[in-house]
Amino acid sequence: MARRGERRPRPRPTESKIQVPARQDRVGVRELSYVTPKGRTLRHRVDPRAYRCSTLAAQLADAWIDYHRAAALTSSDDYAGAVRSLAEFADRHLAAQGLDPAAARLDGGDIDLVEVIYEWEESLQGEYAASSTRPNVLAGRLLTLISHRATRDPDVPERLRRRAEKLPSFRRPKAEPFDEFANHERLAMRQAAQDGVRALEKRLARGRDLLEAGEDPRVAGWHELPNLVWAARHRILTTADFKEHLAARGESWPQPLKELIRGPGDFSRYRYRLLRAVHGLLFPTEIDLHPFRILLLLELTDCTPEELHVICEDDVAFSGEGVRVVQRKKRAARVRADFHPRNDVALEEGEAPGEWAYAGAGNWDIPGLMRRLHAATALSRDVFEQPWLFTAVEGDKHRAAMQAGLGLFTRTGRRFGDWIAAHDGADATPALDISRPHDVRRLRKTAKTSKVTALGGTLTDLAGDDHHIEVFRGHYAHGTTAHVLAGQAINRAQKQVFAKVTAKPVLITAEAEESLTEPETAQALDLTEDQAEALATGDLDMGLTGCRNPYDSPHTPEGKLCHVAPAMCMLCRNAIVFTSQLPRLLMLSDHIEQMRLVLAPDRWQAAWGRQAAALAEVFDECAEQIPAARQEIEDNKLRLDLPLGMRTEYER
């Protein structure tokens, strides 16, 4: 160490020797990679340098990545899409307004981003159909990112903060609810799915036999089909092997190989087609798994498609009485285990039980289908080390080898509609005439409505054990079957009401009244001998008319004495009118007409309208006796005596 005063001055560097650090490019590519709950690795990227508003795009992209990690999101596609969409719009919109897009930023500046966001939301509505929910989703995701940035950056303007706290400027449109499949469609799909399961099991059985006869093709040769099956089982078969060991043109291949790939298009893309066909002898594809998916959704009324797809091998436990299935519903954060007993249904004719078919009763019930699915994908799970029952083996994106994963049934050519279209005949006529849309969610509704029919259609029965009543009302009760059952219930209730409303008394002529006690007359009038005797002696006189049975009135509870006579006698099916009672009815008719002058028209119609109509019908049937009845009223100076309660209820 130099002593004090012995330090030598160091030479100051010249300007030519000063090294200015290079400016860091802070607007780089933002990329996010994550693994979904279903095991898929997804990557999303946003390149701010692709936009003139690069600073705004970079700030939003940073907020997106930070929010994804902070919220532990399982999907980030919509957030990245919202960032790209706004950045593209801001470039066009700000340039058209004579502003510099590069000046746009979240932490202040001269550009009002709130107005830009409003204009962007309006443009989204023009880009998508009116029924699309995409504009609302993108707007909501963007506002979430801005709000997340505002909680961490105090420089975000207050106006932009307030906008981020609000909802998108337009509501998400309500999608038209799906209707269930018709019953004949359900039966047709079930039959086609059962045929598909049988065909798959037959193909897998052939592949297993070929596997037993196969050898390593690197030793025994690449021209024998059993050897190729052996290579597929040991995951050493690729299109590169075909290119190296087989002829360039498929026409010169051995006959077993040509028969394996023969079909539409003949030998186009023959190497990849041969690769898929050989693996298909051992491993089901997504299209092959559709029959199991359809049959199980038609049977499992309390299982959604997403619950069914992610069932793993460890989630099923078989027993002699049935199968126990653990189901996971992500949307409801619910895990439950249900036991499904077997149905005592015998095997179909010609279908022998064995390893590839459930060796027990009811092989098309839930336990039988689970056993058959478990057996069909057992080799796929073992070879490719996958846990799911719906493990599908498909080609990779380079069409060079085969890979396995969870069957998602969402890619082109693997959807539910593609399975339906695969059944079209040679003349392009659909073998399965299924109404559109071909959406698998309609299968669940079909299973629900089948349960509706079985349980009789009450609202609590329709909801079942896995829905609240209001959830069922909003998502399932709109179906055609539910409407038909509801209409039938309404019709039944209306018939009961109409039967009471349209009921009218039975008019007995003077001749029939004289012979009322005779058995033939009583039987013709649908009366018992006791009722006829009581009517003849006046024991069942209710004041205006007679009555078959005062304890069987449609207006009072069963078994109780009628308390509405004589006010409702003219509207009762039990009423018996004798011609000797016509003077009373005429006086009642006069009283009703007098009430027309006292009561308001609507009140009179409600209280007396139907009574007046019923009296008019009776008077029409015995018009010849009406003058004599009028004369009897005048000669005997008869008066109409109505109960006080009747006057109190109907005349005020």
How would you sum up this structure, described in words?
The chain has helices at residues 54-71, 77-96, 113-127, 134-150, 158-165, 183-213, 217-220, 225-233, 239-245, 255-261, 270-280, 286-299, 305-309, 366-376, 378-384, 416-421, 441-455, 459-463, 469-475, 480-501, 510-514, 519-524, 529-537, 582-598, 601-621, 626-636, 644-650, and strands at 30-35, 41-46, 316-319, 322-329, 334-341, 391-395, 402-406, 506-508, 546-547, 575-578. The chain is mostly helical and 652 residues long. The protein folds into five domains: 30-165, no CATH class; 202-280, no CATH class; 286-408, no CATH class; 441-500, no CATH class; 503-650, no CATH class. The strands form four sheets. The protein has a three-stranded antiparallel beta sheet. β3 and β4 (322-329) form a beta hairpin. The chain is elongated. Mean pLDDT is 81; it is low at 10-25 and 351-362.
Q: What is the total number of structural domains?
A: 5
Largest sheet: 3 strands, antiparallel
Strand content: 5-15%
Report the mean per-residue pLDDT as an integer.
81
Radius of gyration equals 41 Å
In DSSP terms (H or I, runs of 4 or more residues), the helix count works out at 27
Keywords:
single chain; about 650 residues; mainly alpha; 5 domains; three-stranded antiparallel sheet; three-stranded mixed sheet; about 50% helix
Q: What's the short story on this structure?
A:
With 652 residues, the chain is mainly alpha-helical. 48% of the residues lie in helices and 8% in strands.
